[in-house]
């Protein structure tokens, strides 16, 4: 097929239309005829925002089809690759993604890789077809640096195979919740990996196991691997959410929502480019939930989705962030540190705190202080606060003690005090907080807030403390924005 090429133009045409599919020699190995393969794997050039319009199909070996379709050889080329299909039809997300890419990259060549006939099989069979669909192109025939493959689920591994077989290096591959079954833990050449392109970024949105299997791959497989909301439970995808937003909801809807959320997060990054969502490098979700990992130093943070910055010299960099339940998904992360004093030596105190942030634009609602190990007494508690709205410049913080959960030992002590008068009365639930240190993830600014009334630093259940910027507090200059907009001991 490719041995008698006589012109660079024809060679280029063969390459573009053969991207992700094999040549005749490899087809013999897989016992599939190339002519048949060209019929079942199609490259649909999208000029319209409406996916219902047929588009223009590139024809293998025919340079004139490039001209007829309006292919711009000097422009960026973006290929969108779907995953496993049960219906044999494009899902709704494909329409949204194609439209978002076309609006964002008006001059780019946008192609949909249609392998529905091969993906609408039993899952193991469809997995085997990913290698076939992802087979080789030749190094000399395409400027690979301008190629960006975007693959969802099984389509992410199709993109990986394309990167494996190409004699050269693709510019970028984005994996949108790459499929887990039959890919988890396998060798790198049998799945998407950092070697498949100059930059490989991956979104993981459904890594929760069921019966020992995760629909989305759990392990990091890119240069950067971003796990929104820990990569498992996505806001807006619970069974209750499904029941309120659709005529019917079931566990399949929940799984589909969480798996597909990666696509919608990527679409959001295309259409809301002025409101980038930042992800932060962290060793794991538990440390991130403690608010420890909000640093942007030394490339420790990055934009999520289309706006991600290439990170060289890093591989399998796991990053985390929280998101809203719907678009725009981006929010605002704050790391807070407060030292909780127990000067009265309260026994079995387990306070439940909330904070309200008062800003120059608006105030937040009451936000629960979530400390996985519980509030530590006579320790500096570090925790993460996530807000869906921008409050503007942070002016004040209101800390509330919502109450406390009485432990079994505390309940037993109270019973004893009821029956034995000689027992000492229970100590009042009084704790002390003098200041709260705050760091904004999005701006990297740091502040110190002191009690508004320096003589009133104690707090009891049902009461509040208000904090304002300390007169002698510190505020660091913000670092460069990366888009368009635990617990430790402390001696005080």
TrEMBL record:
Annotated EC: 3.1.1.3
SUPFAM superfamilies: alpha/beta-Hydrolases, Lipase/lipooxygenase domain (PLAT/LH2 domain)
Secretion signal span: none
Domain PLAT: 332-469
Location of the active site: 153, 177, 259
Reaction(s) the record says it catalyses: a triacylglycerol + H2O = a diacylglycerol + a fatty acid + H(+)
Presence of keyword Glycoprotein: yes
Residues annotated for Ca(2+) binding in this entry: 191, 196
GO biological process: lipid catabolic process
Database matches in Gene3D superfamilies: alpha/beta hydrolase, PLAT/LH2 domain
GO function term, MF aspect, one: metal ion binding
Enzyme class: hydrolase
PANTHER family named among the record's database cross-references: ENDOTHELIAL LIPASE, LIPASE
Protein name, per record: triacylglycerol lipase
Organism: Denticeps clupeoides
Gene assigned in the entry: LIPG
